[in-house]
């Protein structure tokens, strides 16, 4: 496998650079003949990655320019099987501009991890921590989860992720802390090293204390309702990246995440900074109650 993969990827571009890394048990390689791409590959490497040999990769992407400045992206090794040169299904994008090519490459690398990580279930969700407990914000792209994560960090939470929440087989949260995709003026406070207050230095995974299903709407009013356990499972499973391919594993991790009886709320919301204090107040008040209780107290919900 190693020789066949290395041979396939080395012949994709006649001249260029290759990098290979392992993250969360998945080995990925990226090759390019475009110095513009090479100079920015660090932006695409997932958190907690380490170098690995090119011949060991299970997945490989090639990014290159044949002429001019337009870029082509191929997913040319998938699950250890090299695509044929004329396989149209291996083309992620053909002759697009640099920024679009890098965005598509990033999306495919992250999705590759989410689908294949053997010991984690990737949930499309923002995640923060407070007082040693985790808060999950499941949501698709453009649902506003990044802005809400940033508002919660400004309100005193610790940043875990604005893209994926990683659950282990016991249902505990692990960090996936990439730079927030926000304008500079909207970024939360950073530490001396320029990083958002992230938990990536902590080795301890966290239990889930709250699951909040919310999307941004300019005219929305934050009036959350409690979700049943079944609704919570459905919400998380619908956002699980490998949900259709590894349903049993995803269900097991999600079920165990909810064994701690987290508070589960759902409501559209308006501006993130206005909602964050009320949301945290609800979570903290719920956390001070016995787990068997199911509070419907108005103040606990609306802060």
Description:
This protein is α+β, with helices and mostly antiparallel strands and 303 residues long. 28% of the residues lie in helices and 25% in strands. The protein contains 8 helices and 15 strands. The radius of gyration is 21 Å and the shape is elongated.
Q: Topology of this protein?
A:
Elements: H1 2-10, E1 17-23, E2 26-32, H2 35-38, E3 50-51, E4 59-64, E5 71-78, E6 81-82, E7 91-96, H3 98-116, E8 121-130, E9 133-138, H4 145-154, E10 158-161, E11 164-167, E12 173-174, E13 208-213, E14 225-226, H5 229-238, H6 247-257, E15 263-266, H7 272-287, H8 298-302
Helix pairs in contact: 4-7
Provide a compact summary of the structure:
With 303 residues, this protein is an alpha+beta fold.
Overall number of strands? 15
What best-fitting shape do the alpha-carbon axes yield? Answer: elongated
Mean pLDDT: 84
Q: What series of H and E elements makes up the topology?
A: HEEHEEEEEHEEHEEEEEHHEHH
Beta-sheet strand percentage?
Answer: 25-35%
Characteristics of this structure?
303 residues; 25% strand; 8-stranded mixed β-sheet; 8 helices; alpha+beta
